[in-house]
Amino acid sequence: MTEKIDKEPADTPPRASLAPETIKAIPVRHYGRYVSAVIVLALVALLVNAFATAEKIQWSAVGDKLFDSTVLAGAGRTLLISILAMIVGVVLGVLLAVMRLSKNPVTSWVAWAYIWFFRGTPVYVQLLLWFNLALIFPMLNLGPIYKDEMTDVMTPFMCALLGLGLNEAAYMAEICRAGLMAVDEGQTEAAHALGMSHGKTLRRIVIPQAMRVIVPPTGNEFINMLKTSSLVYAVTYNELLRATSTIGSTSYAVMEMLFVASIWYLVMTSVFSVFQYYLERRFARGSSRSLPPTPWQKIRVNLMAFSRERSV
């Protein structure tokens, strides 16, 4: 028997030439993005040109007063009152959140009433209440511990600290409560099974896990605190806005000094926004989700995508 050998015809092309060609993907052109980008840039350019060519704005005064000693002192007081008020708000907020989640109806009701009052009244009204507290209580009498006139106790700094700190505590209480409730109850049960007390379980198990939920809104609250601190102008605390307004009223450069205040507010909020990003990234370690890219990272990605489209 002879084996049958199949032979390819002489006119058959080699098998290598039958391989499919490499697909060349051509990205879709998004002309609408280019048109909208041009329109937005044109509007921004018109706005910048309108302010730059305004005859009644003395931009040289903005540069001269930007690092004025009075302005720098005001910015320092704004930063100081914001940090101290935020510390009061965070500490008291954690305490209120624990009270709110307590099974004791008295502590839970008191925490709820505190949150209800301070979230339901404007910060400006609360500042004025503290500032005019001497109209109701002329003397602060704590017995043998402390006794003084209320006008000497409620200084502008103390009014600003209490007004901002106690109001912030109401919001931080809800943020902390949401973070504590986000931790699975099994964690608490496991800690109790190991013999941990309720307080130790809260400190060592629950709060560290809740920080991933608490940190992002807390950073937003602090940035908001930097701007809300301008309301203490009403209680004569000499922070950034009051310092710049005083210079503007004496030098007749009202708008210029408002620009100076805006620049310093933008600088402070931008610095703490960067700090917030890295703090969130630290507490997000081990999470399956990554943080969204920053605006600068988005710009870099968009530029790289645009360059690829142009190269094609």
UniProtKB/TrEMBL annotation:
TM segment ranges: 34-54, 74-99, 111-137, 258-279
Membrane topology, as annotated: Multi-pass membrane protein
Cellular-component GO terms for this entry: ATP-binding cassette (ABC) transporter complex
Recorded GO MF terms: transmembrane transporter activity
UniProt record, GO biological process: amino acid transport
Domain ABC transmembrane type-1 residue range list: 75-276
Keyword entries, A-Z: Amino-acid transport, Cell membrane, Membrane, Transmembrane, Transmembrane helix, Transport
Classification via Pfam families: BPD_transp_1
InterPro entries named in the record: AA_ABC_Transporter_Permease, AA_ABC_transptr_permease_3TM, MetI-like, MetI-like_sf
Chief place of localization: membrane
Coiled coil: none
Protein's cellular compartments: Cell membrane
Classification via PANTHER family: ABC TRANSPORTER PERMEASE, ABC TRANSPORTER PERMEASE PROTEIN
Assembly, per entry: The HisPMQJ complex is composed of two ATP-binding proteins (HisP), two transmembrane proteins (HisM and HisQ) and a solute-binding protein (HisJ). The HisPMQ-ArgT complex is composed of two ATP-binding proteins (HisP), two transmembrane proteins (HisM and HisQ) and a solute-binding protein (ArgT).
Similarity field: Belongs to the binding-protein-dependent transport system permease family.
Stated name of the protein: Histidine/lysine/arginine/ornithine transport system permease protein HisM
Organism: Streptomyces sviceus (strain ATCC 29083 / DSM 924 / JCM 4929 / NBRC 13980 / NCIMB 11184 / NRRL 5439 / UC 5370)
